[in-house]
Amino acid sequence: MSTLRFRRTALAVAAAAVLPFALAACSDSDSGTDAAAGPAAEANTDASSPASDAAALTDKPFGPGCAGVPKEGAGSFDGMAKDPVATAASHNPALSTLVAAVKQAGLVDTLNNAKDITVFAPTNEAFAKIPKADLDKVLADKATLTKILTYHVVGQKLAPKQLESGSFTTLQTGKVTTAGSGGTYRVNGASDVVCGNVPTANATVYIVDTVLMPK
């Protein structure tokens, strides 16, 4: 009996000695897991992806030319969003040559009554790149002028993401190609978007620095 009691006592002492180390090991393992998971979880929560940043960049009008758009009134972004595209463009001083050409071609109603279109709108400076004699000749030829102007119009609203690598049929039936990313886009490899994603009541406008010429 005394031998049996001795063995039981020895086992109890051993168990008592081992238990604290086992608990400590479990505690260290758990805390290590939490420590590893904590910073990672925080990093995943706080980090923003480049894709989301790019989307935010092009969610509103963007580009260096947007600085010249009036802050208030009918010519502002808010004002243009309330009017159909030809009317909206008439409130922007930088597009006065384009507006005159649209009127000369008799396209005001066509553009204003269209639904969900995209217009690549050349600035006054874009038209100024064309020699005056050539420009006057085009403005006097309604058929040629109509062909050029309708080449700047796509029959769907295009988001900036679609301009990254695209080819689109215009109302003139020709194709325009676009390329770029992150707020920098080029049309037909030669015309830069200087103020993009401008909303009007029936269209999205991308203001460009060079007149697009159909083949």
Pick out its properties:
9 helices, alpha+beta, 215 residues, 7 strands, seven-stranded mixed sheet, single chain, globular
Question: Care to describe what's here?
Answer:
By secondary structure, the chain is an alpha+beta fold. The chain is 47% helix and 18% strand. It is built from nine helices and seven strands, in the order H-H-H-H-H-H-E-H-H-H-E-E-E-E-E-E. The protein has helices at residues 2-46, 50-57, 77-80, 85-90, 96-105, 108-113, 124-128, 132-140, 142-150, and strands spanning 117-122, 153-154, 165-169, 175-181, 184-187, 191-199, 203-208. Strands 2-1-7-6-5-4-3 form a seven-stranded mixed β-sheet. A hairpin with a 3-residue loop joins strand 5 (184-187) and strand 6. The chain is globular, with a radius of gyration of 33 Å. The model is unreliable at 1-55 (pLDDT under 50).
